[in-house]
Specification:
Length: 357
C-alpha cells in the first residue's frame, strides 16, 4: 500500500457510512499494513476514533491477532483518562475566571467534549485547551489564572495584534491553556469575534458558568482554522482530526445549520469553503448539505490532494508555499511587522525555518 492507499483506507474506516461488509472483505483479501494505518492515524490524532469506529462497525474481530486490538483499546482508555482530567481542569479555570466576572467561551475540542458530540469522551484527542475571553479582559484573565499557578510558557512573546495569548501552563495539569482575545487570526470578515459573542449560548458546566459558540459558528471556525489559519487549503492537504470533528458537528447539529447562510459568510473564500465540504464528502462519506453543490473547483482540489499524496516533490513545493502563506498572514496583521517584507534577511530566515520542519 502506498501513502495514498493507506490514508484512504484509514478514511474508509472512519467514514460515516455502513461499509462494514466491504471493509471486512478488504481486510480478508488484501495485505493490510496495519502498522502504517496506525502510524498515519497517530499523526492525525484519530487513533482513538479509529478504534471506536471499528468497534461500532463490528470489525475488531477482523483485525490481526497480534496485539493490535489491545493496543488500540489502551490508547482510547488512556485518552479517556486524560480528557477527564482536562474537563476537571476546564472547570477549575472557569471557576477562577467567574470570580472576576468572566464567562469564558469554549472553543474547538473542549467545546466538543463538554457538549458530547462524541459518544465517548476518549474519542477526541486534545493538544491544549482553547478559551475565548473578552478582549478588554484578557490581562485580567491572565492575572486571575496566575493566582492558581498558571504561568506563561517561556520563549513566547505576546503582541496586541495576536489572536491568542502566550500559552499558559500549570504544574500537575493535563494540558496547556491558550486564551484568545479574538476568535481567528485571518478570516475575521467571515467570523467576527463580536458576532460569536453575540450568538454565544450560556451553559452551566458543573457549577461554573461558560459560553458556547453557536453551531454555525463552530462549523465556520473549524473550516477557517483548518483550511485558512493552518494553510491546509493552499497546501492541498487535510487535518483528518479536524475534518472528522467537522463531520461530528454536522452529525450533531445538522438541523440547526443554515448552509446558505454559512456559504454566504464564506463568499470571500467560496472555493475554499466548497473544497472543505467536498473533502468531508470524498473522504468521510458525508452527504453534501442541501443546496451546496459539488463545484468543479472542489473536485480539482481533491485531485490535487491525491496528486500530492502520490508525489513527495509536489508535497514539498506546496508545503513551502503554505509556510510562506502562513508567515505572510502573520505579517499582515500589523503594519509595523509588514516592514519585515522589505528586509531580504526575512526570506532567508523563513526558508531556514521551513527546512527545520
Amino acid at each position: 500500500m502506498n501513502d495514498l492507499d493507506t490514508f484512504l483506507l484509514l478514511c474508509r474506516c472512519l467514514a460515516f457510512e455502513d461499509n462494514s461488509e466491504s471493509l471486512r472483505k478488504q481486510f480478508q483479501e488484501e495485505h493490510i499494513a496495519w502498522e502504517n494505518i496506525v502510524k498515519v492515524s497517530s499523526q492525525h490524532l484519530v487513533t482513538p476514533a479509529l478504534f471506536w469506529t471499528l468497534s461500532k462497525k463490528g470489525l475488531l474481530d477482523a483485525l490481526p491477532d497480534d496485539g493490535l486490538v489491545p493496543y488500540l483499546e489502551m490508547i482510547l482508555d488512556a485518552n479517556q483518562d486524560r480528557n477527564r482530567r482536562i474537563l476537571a481542569q476546564v472547570h477549575d479555570i472557569a471557576m477562577q475566571l467567574n470570580k472576576v466576572d468572566i464567562e469564558p467561551l469554549l472553543m474547538k475540542g473542549v467545546a466538543s467534549l463538554i457538549t458530547g458530540i462524541y459518544e465517548e469522551v476518549g474519542i477526541r484527542m486534545m493538544t491544549d485547551i482553547d478559551l475565548l475571553v473578552p478582549y478588554d479582559k484578557l490581562m485580567t484573565s491572565v492575572a486571575a489564572l496566575e493566582n492558581i499557578g498558571y504561568k506563561p510558557l517561556a520563549g513566547y512573546t505576546y503582541a496586541t495584534y495576536h489572536h491568542q495569548y502566550i500559552p499558559l501552563v500549570c504544574e500537575g495539569t493535563a494540558a496547556s491553556l491558550e486564551l484568545h482575545p479574538r476568535m481567528v487570526r485571518i478570516g475575521t470578515q467571515i467570523l467576527p469575534t463580536e458576532e460569536v459573542w453575540h450568538d454565544a449560548q450560556p451553559l452551566s458546566f458543573r457549577d461554573s458558568l461558560v459560553r458556547l459558540p453557536s453551531p454555525p459558528h463552530r462549523i465556520q471556525h473549524n473550516i477557517i482554522h483548518t483550511y485558512m489559519m493552518d494553510s491546509n487549503y493552499s497546501m492541498a492537504t487535510i487535518n483528518l482530526m479536524q475534518l472528522y470533528e467537522f463531520a461530528m458537528l454536522r452529525d450533531s447539529f445538522e438541523k440547526q445549520l443554515d448552509w446558505q447562510t454559512i456559504a454566504t459568510a464564506f463568499k470571500p473564500q467560496t472555493k475554499l469553503f466548497h473544497s472543505y465540504v467536498a473533502m468531508a464528502h470524498y473522504l468521510l462519506a458525508q452527504p453534501l448539505p442541501d443546496n451546496i453543490p459539488l463545484l468543479p473547483s472542489a473536485a480539482r482540489h481533491y485531485h490535487r490532494f491525491q496528486y500530492r499524496m502520490r508525489h513527495p516533490w509536489f508535497a514539498k513545493v506546496l508545503n513551502l508555499k503554505g509556510h510562506f502563506t502562513n508567515a505572510l498572514s502573520y505579517l499582515l496583521t500589523s503594519p509595523k511587522v509588514l516592514l519585515k517584507l522589505l528586509q531580504p534577511s526575512w526570506y532567508g530566515e523563513q526558508f531556514q525555518l521551513f527546512k527545520k520542519r
